[in-house]
Amino acid sequence: EAGWGRVNETNFAGSPTPIKLDDGIAAFATIGHAFKNSNWRIEGELGYRDNDGEQISPFCTSACRVDEIGLEEWSGMVNALYDFNLNSERWGMSIGAGAGIDNARYTAFDGHDSNDKVFAWQAIAGLTYRVNQHWDIDLNYRYFNADKAELQQSAAFAPREVNLEKHSVTI
Questions:
Q1: Amino acid 79: pLDDT
Q2: Fewest C-beta in 10 Å: which of 9, 110, 132, 140?
């Protein structure tokens, strides 16, 4: 599944300069197991998110310049989901949560790359339309949180904590 991804505005710890990233892409591949005679299922998920943006240089004086920045992430998650039957043979809904690892790579305004692997968690909600016995169309929303990633705002700075909260809608 693939679609839209957004990163909430955030700051590096101790920095007054916000990180504002544009809407980007999110893509996920999942494989799992639905338990027999139960509405529960479990899945493994590989995720990719990519957002670019601009940041006012933290070395600003009177003439500020805006520089390109980027955030690319790969995640590995284990999700548990509960499927609801909406009194229809074709429509269903699911909610769930997952936990795993996020590998965030931040490209700073000076071109310097830094990355960190941190614990991540997510909440998932989905709407399903059953085309036939073998095919479904899913519309999914994910709230994703990778807390306390230590990334560098530029090559001139030591790594600092940044909280990464993301939203995605995929089909």
A1: 98
A2: 132
Torsion angle of C-alpha atoms 105, 47, 128, 81, degrees rounded to 10: -110
Q: What is the pLDDT of residues 6-48, one digit of tens each?
A: 999 888 888 777 788 999 999 999 999 999 999 999 999 999 9
Instruction: For residue 80, give the H/E element and its range.
Output: strand 66-85
What pLDDT digit, counting tens, does each position of 81-92 carry? 999 989 888 999
Question: How far, CA to CA in Å, does 94 sit from each of 39, 73, 81, 122, 125?
Answer: 9, 25, 6, 14, 6
Burial 66-77 (b: 16+ CB within 10 A, else e): ebebbbbbbbeb
Q: What span, in angstroms and rounded, lies between the C-alpha atoms of 149 and 135?
A: 38
Across-strand partners of 80? 42, 97
